[in-house]
Amino acid sequence: MAETFWDNVFAKHDYHYGTEPNEWIRSGFLEYVLAGDGAPREVLVTELAAGEGRNAVWLAEQGCVVTAVDLSATGLEKARALAAQRGVAVQMVKRDVLGQPTDHPAAHVVVSTFFHVDPQRKRQLFHAHQALTRSGGFVIAEWFHPDQRAGGYSSGGPHDAAMLITPEEVRNAFAGSGWEILVCRRRERDLNEGAGHHGEAVVTQFIGRAG
Ligand SMILES: C[S@@+](CC[C@H](N)C(=O)[O-])C[C@H]1O[C@@H](n2cnc3c(N)ncnc32)[C@H](O)[C@@H]1O
Questions:
Q1: Whole-model pTM over 0.85
Q2: Are 109 and 44 a contacting pair, CB within 8 Å?
Q3: I need a surface site. Which of 59, 118, 128, 199 has the fewest CB within 10 A?
Q4: What does the CA dihedral 192, 196, 199, 202 come to, rounded to 10 degrees?
């Protein structure tokens, strides 16, 4: 089960994906949310599948009000410790993001990094991002692209290529539902995110804005 799997990963390692934010989240947030038109004074952020909290803590350091959601209690415990060490508050919620609808307030920004699920749950994955974003808000996300497996890259990601995500899948999920697609692309880039993600990788990067 995913919960036990991730509890074991996070129990074994020092911060498995490091303690610094994912570069796509960092640059996307600064460029599209903070530097954009009409940034709210108090930015509400929800991170889906937040793991050990590296993005959530950085976003709280930028002054955002952050909720970190994950099904791994061990991950959230480490996220809580990281937030305390860095002197910021992050609300931690242990929950299956693809499960029951949530009563979290809709966020200005929903972020996720490398949140991969079984192929039959991909619709729910995209829907969860959309459902939690308020009108005018942003989704910023990064996934491994199937070429990560096809190209034999060893920098991270699930072994099952069907769990990986193409820009076309994201575009199809967001198109036609009032979303403006700002960035949706395949990229090759270097990852330097703890022991878990290290080296050359092929990723899908997305930024969308809710209508
Ligand atoms: C590859 S890790 C990425 C963690 C974090 N996003 C990062 O990049 O550092 C995947 C995360 O997804 C979480 N996860 C997987 N399925 C989930 C679900 N249905 N609901 C909530 N969290 C989930 C796992 O517990 C794990 O923390």
A1: yes
A2: yes
A3: 199
A4: -100
How confident is the model at residue 41, as a pLDDT? Answer: 81
CATH fold of 2-202 = Rossmann fold (3.40.50)
**Would the pLDDT of 37 be above 70?**
no
Ligand 1 pocket mutation pick from 23, 48, 70, 124 by most atoms within 8 angstroms of CB? 70
CA distance 78 to 80: 5
Give which of 108, 109, 207 is closest to 167, Cα–Cα. 207
pLDDT of residue 40: 77
- Choosing from 1, 3, 6 the residue with most ligand 1 atoms within 8 A of its CB, the one to mutate for a pocket test is 6
Least Cα distance to 50 among 25, 76, 19 occurs for: 76
Task: Note whether 32 and 182 are within 8 A (CB).
Answer: yes
Q: Would you list the domain boundaries of the chain?
A: 2-202
Percent of the chain scored above 70 by pLDDT?
98
